[in-house]
């Protein structure tokens, strides 16, 4: 098995009303190869951020296994997990909230080196200068403060900090979602470039399929805490098979396509995660739903005639 990270049956529940447990993430399994980008897409509340945080054990999963770079993360002690986080970093959506306003940018980027006791103050200063260059910021940025920078530049600072320890995997959670569209594409290009130059693996989380498709080798689509379709990015974008993926895709404009394109409008609201529908959780909104759909949950498996794993009764298991 050559995966850098392999997640098996990951589950995270939260306490809900009346003592019920809300399953934010249910039995999620996937793997990411070295240097690969897996995009995770789904509506807000589908569990994708919980998944990202659970991977680093920033929140504790209830069950499942996470094998990362030969280690079983679920069994690591606190100090073992701290060591593992050198190789496993996260970049959040809001670079205002995640950058300490009282610290210089150089101090912020170099902080992980200090925390992990790496290098001397001279070597750390040199490394910070290198990191600033890597993310396209001027060297004197290190002496300035976060509020002096635009949103896009602050996200470059957050990325530089995430790269300080030379991680193998970065979780990017809505890392460009707070930015203007033109700035979004600059940061996406930066991430794509860094991934090529550094051989990074990335779990790229976004509610926006038009963002996900630009960076991902493979795409996982989540609905109510579960992956409903996962496969190569071209297959997901060109011939999505799960009706939910089709609906997400129909909502984004595509270059070269006229207005003839038909938009699938999902009926109804996203169901309450505390009380998910039986069977296929999508059946309350699915335009293709059949009687079997509310009775049996379809397995996420490879389906006949396709290259993706799809959790849908419309297709025979391959
Ligand atoms: Fe729709 Fe049924 Fe497929 Fe679920 S299993 S996506 S309800 S057709
Ligand atoms: Mg989120």
From TrEMBL:
User: In its keyword annotation, does this UniProt entry include Transport?
Assistant: yes
User: What keywords are assigned to this protein?
Assistant: ATP-binding, Nucleotide-binding, Transport
Localisation? Cell inner membrane
A Pfam family for this UniProt protein? Answer: ABC_tran
Q: Which domain of life is it from?
A: Bacteria
State the family named in the UniProt similarity comment for this chain. Answer: Belongs to the ABC transporter superfamily.
Q: What is this protein called?
A: Oligopeptide transport system ATP-binding protein
